[in-house]
Design brief:
homodimer, six-stranded mixed sheet, about 625 residues, Alkaline phosphatase (chains A, B), 17 helices, zinc (chains A, B), Immunoglobulin-like, 28 strands, magnesium (chains A, B), ten-stranded mixed sheet, disordered C terminus, about 25% helix, elongated, phosphoprotein (chains A, B), signal (chains A, B)
Chain lengths: ~625, ~625
Amino acid sequence: MKHRTARRMRAALALTATSAALVGLVGLAALPASAATPDDVTEHGGATRNDGDMTEMLRESLVDGPAKNVILLIGDGMGDSEITVARNYAEGAGGRFAGIDALPLTGSYTTYAVNADGSVNYASESASTASGWSTGTKTVNGRLSVDVDLDPQATLLEIAKANGLKTGNVSTAEIQDATPGAEIAHISKRGCFGPVKTTADCSSESVEAGGLGSISEQLLNVRPDVTLGGGAATFEESAVAGPWAGKTLFEQASDRGYQRVDNAAELAAVTTADADQPLLGLFSLGNFPTRWVGPDATDIPDADSTKLPAPVACTENPERLETGLSLADLTDKAIDLLDNDNGFFLQVEGASIDKQDHAANACGQIGETVDLDEAVQVALEYAETKGDTLVVVTADHAHTSQIVGSAIPGLNTHLLTEEGAPMIVAYGTSAAGGSQQHTGAQVRIAGYGPGAANVVGLTDQTDLFFTSANTLGLNQDLASLSAAATLAAPTEVLPGATYTVTASGLNADWQVRGSDDLGQQDVLRGTASFQVTAPAEPGTQTVTLTGAQTGVVLTADVSVSAAAPVDPAPTASATPPAAAAGSGSGSSSTGSLATTGTSVPFALGGIALALVAGGAYLVIRRHRRGHALSHN
Amino acid sequence: MKHRTARRMRAALALTATSAALVGLVGLAALPASAATPDDVTEHGGATRNDGDMTEMLRESLVDGPAKNVILLIGDGMGDSEITVARNYAEGAGGRFAGIDALPLTGSYTTYAVNADGSVNYASESASTASGWSTGTKTVNGRLSVDVDLDPQATLLEIAKANGLKTGNVSTAEIQDATPGAEIAHISKRGCFGPVKTTADCSSESVEAGGLGSISEQLLNVRPDVTLGGGAATFEESAVAGPWAGKTLFEQASDRGYQRVDNAAELAAVTTADADQPLLGLFSLGNFPTRWVGPDATDIPDADSTKLPAPVACTENPERLETGLSLADLTDKAIDLLDNDNGFFLQVEGASIDKQDHAANACGQIGETVDLDEAVQVALEYAETKGDTLVVVTADHAHTSQIVGSAIPGLNTHLLTEEGAPMIVAYGTSAAGGSQQHTGAQVRIAGYGPGAANVVGLTDQTDLFFTSANTLGLNQDLASLSAAATLAAPTEVLPGATYTVTASGLNADWQVRGSDDLGQQDVLRGTASFQVTAPAEPGTQTVTLTGAQTGVVLTADVSVSAAAPVDPAPTASATPPAAAAGSGSGSSSTGSLATTGTSVPFALGGIALALVAGGAYLVIRRHRRGHALSHN
């Protein structure tokens, strides 16, 4: 295992060197230096971690918001026990993770769920918990970002996007899995990854039923700038209904402008990811293979510790994805692509701490924690450079693994740690072959940067939603963010002409539906255009556009007249028609997030032209009269 | 259970009222107000705990040392899981302990032990862990405040006392148990409570072998101002050797000036506890009975949750000690008695969280956590009033209990919580009938007051020693605290006369031994006096006193002459003899804490007189030439 240790040491040295170079350059206090591993923890004071009085250091670490960026790093199932198991193994009991343990501000948060009847559920899981911090609303186990009444709740990623920030979603799990899924989908069952399962298990939410569709289809609608993870298998499923019926989700993604990559070289070649060409990199059919493998946990007869197998070390998993696709690599790339003047929100999940804990696989679980730690190091390095980024590291819920002194009646793994000591990791919440259970203990939350003070003490998982949204200064009322949308249309067109109408300022709508047979467009940067054909007879043509998410309605009355100026039909052009008086009316729907209905792909080049042309068009601005979604 | 809830609510209201009255009166920021329990945790934002942005509140909570007082409250075995189990049960998942959860600054600390060969041990227990924060030195499981080489390590309580602070030690366990024991004893086996066990299991450390003696005997030597807990049974044992051989430890305590109380009325009547009359209140033969009782944990066939018994609530334990002897009551009384101009150090342990966790007794464990919470409320109320007191709440190690969603193959308890929801508390680290195991997870540490910033982030248990000692501004070099001791003796006495010699400034010695047949005295406030009989023939009499703990040696040469002034022999008197030239020499031993050897009781009244008389005596001051104990 020497090479791994050496590699981790090199990484730590590199981080230290970078940090040292940056000290003094940024407004935010430098991260506390990691104390050197003590030479002898048996000496008086030899095991301490503080380096003198930390009051001033802590004072300097308290930075008021706003933050420009937020990076949330989630260790799925990474309770305090899992952190300690991994630290003991990889860094030694007296050691320190260079990422996870470096954040200066720490607290605990509660992770309970609620039941459908509104009562509390002390044993939550990844869907209800991820929904908690993604939306600020407690929900029922198994649900993603819908509340106890199944009403969709806006997520941090969606709100960030609606406020003009770039967004990213990274996981070592299938990207449809609960943690990444909660940021981009609203559905009653977390297992409805694609059209197949959704038709079977979430039928009323399927596209064919007029619902929001499967988690994958919702992801394509939300259109984060960067999406990296596993879960390619589901994208080979075909849509059942809608404009892409019969086409695979990958084909749909390409149709809608996504850049697709599926290996490290392709990822490395990507230089831009934005609304026009969001990045979709799915590098495994299912979840990522783990970093490490090791011995199976075993039932020890009579829990007799003398019958434990000899302690052994973990080993590298030969199935691990190629170099360049570690969670740290993906985090690094995501940050590179998201960094922009308007800020970004990025969620990164180390997913298989949980999955390997369920499987009573200590080495799997530990390796994934080490993997997350390296991703945290990347995030902290960026945050320390910039001084304007809140980094939060936490878990969704606690888990089963326990460090014990002698074999338990359940499953035991006997590991030889990096510092050469034996450690028993015990799994006692399910019989051999079953899935070990989550546990309901409060879990650690740690932060660095503007607003990080809000993680200290006892908070709830739902506080993290507000901590993040507030330090970013986000307007959480999505409906209001589309309320000032405008519709640009010519005031007068020739009968039978084709002309362009362009909606702008639809900041909280990912799609917009046109009246009649206009279909649906993706809204990019708040904007979408439709080509409209005027009727053959003179009169008034009313064009109505409806935001798919907020329900805001934009209406324009266009005069159809043989006396109209020559229209640039059949395609939009940079030559504006002469402006003339037009009339418009606006209205808005009320209720929860509207469904996406049908949708048609749009030629992106046409939008740009239409926008230039729109400068001389009549701009009809309508304020919403109701609140489709209220977020406070 | 309504009355309990009502009682807890009244207590909370009382604390709130007090807090409100105090805001603005003290330099230290007020404790954060507890958010009201949300009406509906299913609403958006309904489950949050923060009340807006907490950055400024946290900033105000960062108070530089020094602190005048330190109160450490230890929940034995109170890991994050145990806190959550108890909070869920007693306050609701979205509730908040008014004490435990109110401390503004939080972190985690590691609790590992070391083995005798210096390697690490990931699964520690209460003796090694209590030694960790008591001494700043890691040790081997089962040992109390000796290091890996069995060398005694000075404790926070001892160091505080040597620095002139008052000291207290409170526990719901037998007072000889690991957590309270670590502050007042240095011994290789935590079980050596009294002479009987010590003769059998710790023979080389027994008084008869010239050792420090049993934990109880060491307690009597250290002489904290206030000692309250259980463990009276051991004090009925008789000393095997030394001046109290054949006398019970209770008789010894009385002989040495201790005030003994054994019920609430007697405790209430105590108005003073100090070096002259330290308070020893042992209210149960063994550990205190628990506050609550409840159903036994049971093995559920096939871990089939449908076979779980119906959930039930905990009930009051009819065996609980009488009113006035709760941990909160004892904490309150201890603070009252310790509050003084020089400050104090007080340790309070809620011991049976651990003991009931071992016994897989969920209600027992929960009730003890609630009990500790009320003690924390008392400490915080005092600290908030004074503004000069560091309060730290933490655990010694994590423990076994887990909150799960379905029955485990081990032991399960199905509880109906205060908010009317079912909760499964699982115990899976030992078979039915066995002792459930400690676990090695890092545990929560929380602080309030000057120096509390040092608990935030990741620390080690041994950091707590330095956090406490440093914020109190304690000189940790005990030997240096006795190095300026002086010995007052007459310069010249008549042959055969009885005269008094008085040592002062023996701040880090609890006993002092006289040369020849002078025996041993308790050192009170750094001072002890001996009655010396001059030889019948003229000449020079050399009197040598040796500090029992630091080994400092004080020597006086007294001239024995028929021409000496009339001596006030045979008893000390307020009339000083005429001063004359004398000579003295000093030396010091080196090495570890010296043993107490034999000791004789001393008439306390005599000391006072001798001290008055000492003013005109020759004062011989000797600086130490070596370091018997070095603490840095």
